[in-house]
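Q: My labmate handed me this sequence with no annotations at all. I'd like to see what the chain might look like in three dimensions before we decide whether it's worth expressing. Could you predict it?
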Amino acid sequence: MKKILFVCSLVLLVSVFFVGCQKDTGVIKIGVAGPHTGDLASYGIPTVKAAELVVADWNANGGVLGKKIELVVEDDVCDPKVAPDVATKLIGEGVVGIVGHICSGATEAALGIYLDSSIPVISPSATNPPLTKSGAYPNFFRTIAPDDAQAILEVDFVLNTLGKTRIAVLHDKQSYGKGLAEFAKSFIEQSSNGEVVLFEGIQADAVDYSAVINKVENAGADAIIYGGYHPEASKLVSQIKEKGINIAFISDDGVKDDTFIEVAGSAAEGVYASGPNDTTQDPIAVKARENHVAKYSEEPGAFFYNAYAATQALLTAIANAESTDYEAITSALTSNYVDTTLGSISFDENGDAIGVGFSMFQVQNGVYVEIK
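A: Here is what I predict for the chain of 372 residues:
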């Protein structure tokens, strides 16, 4: 009996040792989550490329905490129904932090799962204000300003720069678009020189938007503020142009994407959109762009610089914390500034980035140009 117990104990010890060795893979894993296929892939793929470039640079200089960094990339297609499964899979892979998700709805759907596993998340693009301001997700950070800041910029631009007073506010009924539109509506109603003549949700993925365009025309609107993504925006502006309606179209960072211009074609000309401040002349951003062009033979896409900064911030926090412990990383994120493609940034107690903001852009001769 003693011999049997000894053998069993030895087997158990060996098993424990083996499992322990399996967990210590000698690498630090970072998850990258977002849409990598489908209509919104142009938002997610630039984040993967940004993370790849940052990690390659860090690994060339010894990695972090003496270990190489490994990316685990998962596709959520910007779908809140898919995002929880992606989060569960990434946690199962042993990631210590997440760069992503991209869309606000998908981000919110996954955040609670990450929180339960004490995983910090830094999004380059999820702008819905409650993600930080509700206090529900202390594990969430972002390298982009929230939608209330974006909406007030758009409203001020429409009313005070363009001089438009009768505004139709449209949205795609989704978390990001509807939230931004509601902020815009509220700011217009608080103004002394603007009126919301139509507030309407459209069906995402629909083919024909003539009904809502007719409502805009009948309401006597002289400008449209649209909250949503580029697939619907491209159809809206194309159909507006086909009907011969001359109206200012103002949208958001979900539309400030080259794919919108490619799909909408000539109808995109003159469209306004808010987007992250142009930091492309920052020395770190210049180098990041050069590395991107050298590796991928193309210009960076949407949210590339925000994603680059998010990856820099996460890895720097791990290095400063000298640990992959959740509390140590989140403390480092809020107590240190880091030089990034967005300039020198840190995060406030809510997880919002300090030192970032939005600007207005317009499509001019087929490219987005910042309006100074």
